[in-house]
Design a protein that fits this description.
CATH topology of the largest domain: Rossmann fold
CATH architecture of the largest domain: 3-Layer(aba) Sandwich
Strand content: 15-25%
CATH class of the largest domain: Alpha Beta
Number of strands: 20
Radius of gyration: 21 Å
Largest sheet: 8 strands, mixed
Helix content: 25-40%
Number of helices: 9
Strand order of the largest sheet: 4-1-5-7-10-11-14-15
Length: 348
Amino acid sequence: MSIKPKILLLYTGGTIGMVKDYKTNALKAFDFNQILEKIPELEQLNCDVKSISFEEPIDSSNMNTQNYIEIVNIIQDNYKEFEGFVVLTGSDTMSYISSAVSFMLENLQKPIIFTGSQLPIGDLRTDAKENLITSIEIAGAQKNSKSIISEVCLYFEYKLYRANRTTKINAEQFEAFTSMNYPPLAESGVHLNFNEHYIYKPSKESKELIIRKKLITDVVILKLFPGITEKTVKSILNTEDLKGVVLETYGAGNAPDKVWFLNLLKEAIVKNIRIINVTQCSGGNVIQGHYETSVVLKQIGVVSGKDITTESAIAKLMYLLNENLTLKEFTLYFEKSLRGEISKDFGC
């Protein structure tokens, strides 16, 4: 007789955990301890589901790194008892949160599936039920008595993605997320089909889970646009205690070659501020040196983000800044795929 996998459902906040009070039409937090009353279909899944909720549900717009640590602490405390985890958060910042958690957990051997919804769980046309049911099914899915998934993922509207490859692209459609530079790990239709070729395969050697809870938050995203002024760039790069910048450039990593701009970047790098070059484009990658306007960036020590997303770049930057690396070491680790966040086709 097979033992049902135990899945821990963690609710942090967000639309998915809301139900409508039909007397007042106001939304209120849903009690996940009574989840079977709202979603009796869960009893058909071959797993046992337990739930934990944050004491105070947090809107995704208010999420911060302390909340990331709280999520990781709950996973750490329950890691040995459960075979999989489903984390419910608001969708607006889900790519940021799930990307960060992927870097905070090293040697992960179990599935952590982030999901949420565009409509509350009690709405007539809600996407919450399907997202939740399938996420739990994925977290409990096993092959040869081992979890099929052993990485941090994001499930939304019939597709399972590697979390640190995702971006939210739509505020209204149910298909709210995409992963432009990496294929879905699974697709849900009549059958739940796993694309096993793209799924991370953990080492057969059993390794202890390593938790990284220290994240450096003195970072900023600087998005370039035609007409950006020296005063603006200088003000941002002179932010007190600034330690890292995600520089959103044009196309394949191109930026102005104005002397003032390059000098400001150079001065920041001399002050040990790490600058990451990521593309503003939804898909594709940075190739520093491909065009003349990015040759100097590489020469002065700007780090190539290759095909990493902005959300993942911020998370990885926060993680690596705590490691006290030299610029050479930092560049090596940032341009290397640590959790599948960068495609190996691009020299990693």
